Amino acid sequence: MIEILDEEILLSTKKTSMVLSYRNQKKLGTYYYGRKIISKEEIPSLIRKYSYIEGTEINLEENKPYTEDLLKLDLSVMNHSDFNSPSLILGNEKSSVFDFVFKEAKIISPSIIEGLPTPHDAKEELLVTLEDSLMKVKADLHYVLYPEVDVIGRYLVIHNENELPLSIRKAMSYQLPLVNHDDRIFSTYGHWADEFNADTHPVIHGRTLIESLTGSSSARHNPFFMILEKDCNNISGNVYGFNLVYSGNHEYSIEMDTFDNIRISQGIQSTGFEKVIETNESFSTPMGIMSFSYEGTNGLALNMQQFVNAHIIKPQWKNTDRPIIYNNWEATGPNFSKGKLVSLMKKAKSIGIELFVLDDGWFSSRNDDSHGLGDWNVNGKKLPGGLKSLSDECQKLGMKFGIWVEPEMVNDDTKLYKEHPDWIIKDNIHIPLKGRHQYVLDLSKKEVQDYIIKAMHSILDNADISYVKWDYNRNISDIPNGFSSFYHDYILGLYKVISKLTDDYPDVLFENCASGGNRFDLGMLSYFPQSWMSDDTDSYQRETIQRNALYGYPLSVMSNHVAAKTSNQLLRKTSLDIKFDVAQYGILGYELDLNDLFKNDLETIEDQIRFYKENRKVLQWGRYSLVSEPSEKEDLVLEASLDDKAIITQFHSLQRPNPKEGHLKALYLEEDSLYTYKTRPQLIPLKKFGNLVNYIAPIHVKEDYILSVALAKHVKMKSEVDEGIASGSALLSSGPVLTQEWSGVGYDEHIRLVSDFGTRCYLIRKKI
Ligand code: GLA
Fold it and tell me: Is the pLDDT of residue 715 over 80?
């Protein structure tokens, strides 16, 4: 709800309130953001009154105790009375001094941001206009409410009414003042195959700036971050979460002054940015996202996850079952024959897969990553009958068919490059640099956008394709135009293309990918409802990626695959069951050579798929939470919960000698209900026992000898099963005791053998 009062505005969501005020010298600021307040009478006591200003500060008005430096501004500029980092940098030929003051506030119906993804189904919107009447520039601050998920969106529109062109050098989507409570920043960092590492570090006096300059939102620093108050943990305490509905270069800044006032801002990356707008032109920023929870980081995660599911992903994909995928990439790479693909398809179908995805290598002269990108004609030698004959084959088998594309790129051996060398991004002075042997097409150009749209139409119209994996595999370099809005224009071009394609093919499921998670953000998710999280399919590494992403993103957008036992990225070996326990949280897929698997392994996968199908709703649409952090003594424990079910997985790092008593603990269950719990059994690889296998084997078996491989092939050994009944209260407390863990002494069917990087998954259901 939005209430415009006398010089104050109250924004209310289900559990939070935000109080804006322009009482102090008509400067707009946020004076309160936190738990919901209960009465308007409280508002005056939330707003600081100033009696004098200190030291070297500049008075906004002579003999009045106001300086922008200390006010809790929602928009700040430089060259006036504010000496913190500005959220807006502007200037024209005559001046770069601005004095924005309140002009009007009104409630409007939810708006659409021109050319940029706008979260849908907003409930209400507040528009506050600030103005510098002497410079003839207006700043519209939009506050967009998603009350049921406790999210407030903010964006800014600058209008130039001056006869001189206006140069915009920085325009943050929002600026939010907060009060410091020994706050910590949760931010992410990463790289290819190593996305979503997290840092938690104190807010310092001065400024912490986190940014991406790669051309995309990037795995270096995802635009999602949190500010945690001192005592905040996963289940309790105050926490603020932020994000940006944008896919290009971005930045966020957390600045604390000597008085411990904190200013947070986020928006399009500003280094080297310049957008010049002419008289009567406007410039809109993307929308920034703010949320608050007093229920710890899981509370914040719930807000963010529900926000994405309800307002970011396209409504037609909401609550729909996403298919289980088989992708051939880690099985074949770009070298395959039609026969190989068809045999994989048949195997995939026989174990329960629903969608077969043909990855890179199906077009032009593409047999490795230095050829063919940009020429989107099928390689008829590899695939006689084209994509159509493969999609027909899938249809016959009762599976859907999908393909990989990377339309924003070009290799230089292609017809496309030879005909249009000027379509790539380059400055026309230097030799443009390649990444992964490819150039980036300049999507700010209309003719490039049209080419991509046409090429995609011709692919999608000529076969029965229900899924597209849209990849983007290098950073941008060599931009033209000096200081400019080039990076932003690229993203606007990209949004044009993908908005048209997703409108033209509403039933095609697009999956976002950028060498894994290098452009995993709310902008891309506004068009493509799911995203390949990482090229790293090692289960242990992937746990980190998924569990740090859960604070900002829901299960429904996280695409994860079970790959071969030995990880292609780390050469770490974990069983298929361990890999499944990680990959099941989100959209499940398989990415390994099914023809290389023993019967035991195929049966294991069939069991996994059966389990996933039975629990698909909770694994794709449930609440995704952290039950406990990993430590030297504790496992990482994650939970997906929905209605009457929860799926809890405990992730070991290294096996400990003398393991302590194990318990099953859950978080989001009803205290007063009774539940049943049961282990999802795993296949225990016999080889795990090494020489110890001789204690039970009728003949002597040498470790690593062919006989032990043969044993693994034929002997199927299942893990222990823990099952029982427990109340929500017990599960929320220490939880039921699990069977004894392997301690190097004896083994029977009740011993819980988890070992290094192992997992155990439990299904909890309300008892009826
Ligand atoms: C990227 C993707 C992979 C795969 C390859 C194909 O690295 O992230 O999943 O599609 O490209 O070239």
Answer: no
Closest to 549 in 3D by CA, of 308, 764, 759, 229? 308
| DSSP characters over 545-593 | HHHHHTTTS-GGGEEEEEE-SB-TTT--B--HHHHHHHHTSSEEEEES-
Residue 535 Cβ contacting ligand 1 at under 6 Å: yes
Atom index in ligand 1 nearest the CA of residue 404 equals: 10
- Decide whether any atom of ligand 1 lies within 6 Å of the 764 Cβ: no
**Ligand 1 atom at minimal distance to the Cα of residue 469:** 10
* 534 residue type, one letter: S
Give 340 Cα–ligand 1 centroid separation in angstroms. 19
Measure the CA–CA gap between 750 and 718, rounded to whole angstroms. 10
Running DSSP on this structure, what letter comes out for residue 376? -
Closest C-alpha residue for ligand 1 atom 2: 515
The C-alpha R_g of the chain, in whole angstroms, comes to: 28
Index of the ligand 1 atom closest to the CA of residue 369: 12
Two structure tokens written together for 156: 């800014």
Taking phi first (over 0 means left), then psi (-120 to 50 degrees means alpha), and beta for anything else, what does residue 501 get?
alpha
Strands 400-405 and 409-410: unpaired
Taking residue 567's Cβ as centre, other Cβ atoms within 10 Å add up to: 21
Is 404's C-beta closer than 6 angstroms to any atom of ligand 1?
Answer: yes
Q: What are phi and psi of 497, to 5 degrees?
A: -65, -50
* 465-509 per-position pLDDT tens digit: 999 999 999 999 999 988 999 999 999 999 999 999 999 999 999
Q: Give residues with Cβ within 8 angstroms of 632, minimum separation 6.
A: none
CA distance 168 to 480: 18
Residue 482 CB contacts under 8 Å (≥ 6 apart), including other chains: none
Closest C-alpha to ligand 1, atom 12: 360
Name residue 708's beta-bridge partners: none
Atom of ligand 1 nearest to the CA of 513: 8
Whether the predicted pLDDT of 710 surpasses 80: no
Residue 609's SS3 state is helix
In a 13 Å sphere around the CA of 253, the CA atoms on its Cβ side amount to 25
Tell me which of 325, 329, 532 to substitute to probe ligand 1's pocket, judged by most ligand atoms within 8 Å of the beta carbon. 329
Q: Which pTM value belongs to this model? A: 0.97
Measured by CA distance, the residue closest to atom 1 of ligand 1 is: 515
The two three-digit tokens of residue 9, written as one number: 């505005």
**Above 90 in pLDDT, residue 694?**
no
Q: Is the CB of 473 under 6 A from ligand 1?
A: yes
| Pocket lining: 471 vs ligand 1, CB cutoff 6 Å | yes
The beta strands (E) that lie in 245-396 are given as: 250-256, 261-268, 275-277, 282-284, 288-293, 325-327, 355-358
Residue 471 CA to ligand 1 centre (angstroms): 7
Instruction: Answer yes or no: is the C-beta of 601 below 6 A from any ligand 1 atom.
Output: no
Sort residue 303 into left (φ over 0), alpha (ψ -120 to 50) or beta.
Answer: alpha
**Ligand 1 pocket, mutate which of 192, 362, 470, 473 (most atoms under 8 A from CB):** 473
Please tell me the chain's helix, strand, coil percentages from 3-state DSSP, rounded to the nearest 5. 25, 30, 45
CB-based contact 349:326 (threshold 8 Å): no
pLDDT tens-digit readout, 617-643: 999 999 999 999 998 888 999 999 999
Structure tokens at 560: 């994860």
12 lines ligand 1 (CB under 6 A): no
Task: State the amino acid at position 411 in one-letter form.
Answer: N
Confidence of residue 706 (pLDDT cuts 50, 70, 90): confident
**Helix (H) / strand (E) containing 170:** strand 166-179
Q: What is the residue-averaged pLDDT of the chain?
A: 96
Tokens of 278: 């002419």
Q: Is residue 465 within 8 Å of 402, Cβ to Cβ?
A: yes
Burial of 69 (0-12, 13-18, 19+ CB in 10 A): buried
**Does the pLDDT of residue 270 top 90, yes or no?**
yes
